[in-house]
Structures are given as structure tokens and as C-alpha cells.
Design brief:
It is a single chain. Strand 4 (68-74) and strand 5 (79-85) form a beta hairpin. The longest helix is centred in the last third of the chain and has 20 residues, at 213-232. The chain is built from nine helices and six strands. The two termini are 29 Å apart. By secondary structure, it is of the alpha+beta class.
Length: 300
Amino acid sequence: MTHSLTPRDEGNLPALGATPLIRLDAYVAEDGSTVVNGHLLEMGGTRPPNEAILDAVAMFARTLRAPVAATVIDRTVQQVARLRVHPDGSSRTIADEEDLPPGRERTAAEEEAFPPLARVERIIQHAQREELHAAFVLASALREHLTLRRGAEDELSLEARAIEAYLAYLRGDHMLSTVLALTVARIRCRTDLNRAAPDVARATAAWQRLWDDGQVATRGQELLHMWERLSEADLLRDPSHHAMAQAVRSRLAQGGRPVPPPSAAAALAAAPGPAPAPPEDKPLKPTRRGLRRFTRRAAR
């Protein structure tokens, strides 16, 4: 169900001639699930995520015979850590101003080494095998890092968030699915209204499964505003979109329960594009120097 990194896995390693200090990425989910460069690590026993990440990044440094930079998004502590790891296994955290300079060339080099589309294919493979937890964690990691690098409104970031929302829907987490899908629809309505209707429809499909009256009302009002904007712009050309807009109006006016859930056998490839309410994209705390869990001496 998971993939472990090995030094000679060509799907994990950049070309040997890659620019030194190419930046890798890692992600720790709220439950401790750990991803490095789009691969879910096998966390045997009680091995902490920070040690698994440092070992994986040090492997790259040894293979490339050069220091390697890494950006770690750690949702367990709500922080971003930036690291520099050396071939001898030593590491230290660095401040934002010490990190690799941003820019299109750097982003292009990193994404050429670890293509986002290859990561999407891996996510789909997990989902088709009904390994929904693995697929969801990988999708979250991809979306978090694309958003950090490119911004929330970037096309790749939006597509990753749409996939994450659909996977949350398949897992039955309709609140999270609604939040994620609404974020996509909100951005699309602001930046490209002509393409927004399918995204508003996906957000509506997730919202229809909600039970909490407060969430139904709050999210429903936003959806209704989106549908009305689309209608005013003469962009409701699909009969199903008219029906969904009317369903939102009716439910807000009369109240009611969500419709029954769909069959769990729905395949991810068939998607039109892929508890308490979760936070709405709150920015992570800025990097701090001296995060001890990511600092170690050589030969450990």
C-alpha cells in the first residue's frame, strides 16, 4: 500500500547531473503519514517522521555527492521547515532568506526532476486500488507544495486541490470535501468565471451531503451567490447546472437532509475533474531557525 524510497529507484531520483542543491519536498500529515517527493514512506514501528525525512533526504545527498535542500510542510505542528542536508547525514534548519532563491528556473528544475503529473498518476493508481488514505495523503502533499511554490491560484495548485476534494468525498469526509471544493470554486469565480461552473457544481455535490445546519446555511449561501453570478453572466448552459442551482435555493429555503451517498465503487477516473469544520487555508507559521527535530550531526 505504501512505497519506500530506495537509492536506485529511478522514479524518485533526479538525474545525476542535476544542479546541486535542488530542493526536495516532504510532507507530514496530521496523523503522521509522511511523504517525500511524492512517495508515501513506510513508517515501521515508532520511527518519528522527522528521522524518516532526514534519512530519505540524506540518501539523495549521498547519491548526488552534494548538499541537498528540502522544504518540509509539517501539519502536526503547523510549520514549514527549510533544511540543508549533507552527504554525511548532518543537517541544519535554515531561515527563509537562506533558502534557495525563488524563481521560474528553480521551480522548473524541481518539477522536471519530480514531475507533478507523475505524482497525479500515482495518486490515481492508489485510488483505483481503493487505497484512499494513501491517495488522499499524497494529494494533500502535492497540493500543499504546489501552493507554497506557485500560489493558491496557479492552475496546477487548483487541479491538485480539486483531486484532494474528490478523494475526501470518496472517503466520506464531506465537510472537508466541501471546504476544498469551495476554495477551488471561489478562486475560479474570481480569476476565470467562464470556467467556474464545473467547479461550483463539484462544490455543490459535496455540500449536498452535509448534515450540520450551520454549515449547510453558511456554505449554501456562498454557493447560491456563485450560481447567481454565473446565471447573470449567462454561463449556466448545462441543464444539470441549472438543476443544481435550483437545488441549492430549495434547500436553503426549506431545509432538509443530504441526499443518500453514492456507491463506494465510484472510480476516481470517472470524476469530472477531480466532526468540526476544518480550517480554511490558514497560512503556516513562518520558518524558525533551530528547529531541533530537523537538526543532527554526521554519522547518525
